[in-house]
Design brief:
With 288 residues, this protein is α+β, with helices and mostly antiparallel strands. Helices cover 38% and strands 22% of the residues. The protein has ten helices and ten strands. The strands form four sheets. Strands 4-3-8 form a three-stranded antiparallel β-sheet. The chain has a three-stranded antiparallel β-sheet with strand order 5-6-7, with no helix packed on it. Strand 5 and strand 6 form a beta hairpin. Helix 2 crosses helix 4 and helix 2 runs parallel beside helix 8.
Length: 288
């Protein structure tokens, strides 16, 4: 099945089910979340020393029990899967101690809609103006009441702009969806290969004088019952007189490692992570 090109699809079909995607995202997350937030002085227009400030307190403790690393980890994860990360400041209605300290609240990106209005000039439209956002817990098709938010209230992080959108970002997984699907299918095929004891590639010769119509009908049934990764390794039953000739039966002959390694490298390239850092086979071979 095709990987759904959505936040939930990338999360369940990509990050949670594909080791290469998970490794790339984990590496990006470890680097991004290790950032220390500091101010920097400028002396004569040149960057100088770094320093902390109480003004950074909200980012250092975005919510009770959370740290800057938690905030940044969620931010890059949302950006990787959805292309966008949204956060908003909110003051809880009830709070121990009675203070009015605000919290940074994460908005699930696929539950956020961007509200825009056309820019008009001389009776014509000149692009779009972002007015704000609408957040609906559970998605816009749920029964929950939507919450309108102004643009000034929302932090919108979109590191890779979508070329076909004005304000929305794009996931780095989008151009390699096929590679992720192929890698998952190859892993599934290898598992079936081991479980069922090798799936032969073969040529089937039919006896002289066999009825062509019956051969075509039998071939259709054979393909339905024997082709595909889920049917790899099944016992092949032939009718009397048919002869099967094996033309390839090992993963070495199929060059499985090279084919799968090339796909893994393309996924790592889209993520901006060197294959050797992730520990992919092609990267390790190049390193040695």
């Amino acid at each position: 099945e095709a990987l759904p090109t959505s936040f939930a699809g990338y999360a369940s079909g990509g990050m949670k089910c594909n080791a290469v995607v998970f490794s790339c995202m984990a590496t990006r997350q470890l680097v991004f979340s290790a950032t220390r937030l500091r101010f920097q002085r400028l002396r004569d227009g040149k960057p100088s020393d770094l320093f902390g400030s109480p003004a950074l307190g909200l980012l250092e403790v975005p919510a009770p029990g959370e740290t800057t690393q938690d905030l940044l980890s969620r931010m890059i994860q949302d950006a990787d899967l959805a292309g966008n990360a949204y956060h908003v400041l909110d003051t809880p209605l009830s709070r121990l101690g009675g203070d009015d300290q605000k919290h940074i609240v994460r908005l699930r990106p696929d539950w956020v809609e961007i509200v825009a209005a056309p820019r008009m000039r001389l009776g014509g439209r000149l692009g779009w103006e972002r007015l704000g956002y609408i957040y609906t817990e559970g998605g816009k098709y749920s029964d929950n009441k939507p919450v309108p938010l102004l643009s000034s209230e929302v932090s919108h992080f979109a590191p890779i702009p979508d070329p076909l959108a004005d304000f929305r970002g794009m996931s780095w997984l989008t151009p390699v969806v096929r590679e992720v699907e192929n890698d998952s299918l190859m892993n599934q095929h290898k598992r079936r290969y081991m479980e069922n004891g090798a799936a032969p590639n073969m040529i089937i010769k039919h006896p002289v004088g066999a009825d062509r119509t019956k051969i075509l009908d039998w071939a259709k049934r054979l393909e339905a019952e024997s082709t595909g990764a889920l049917n790899a390794g099944k016992t092949l039953n032939l009718y009397p007189g048919a002869d099967a000739t094996i033309v390839g039966s090992s993963m070495k002959e199929l060059d499985f490692r090279a084919v799968q390694g090339a796909g893994e490298t393309r996924i790592a390239a889209a993520a901006g992570v060197p294959p050797v850092i992730v520990g992919l086979s092609e990267g390790l071979q190049a390193a040695t």
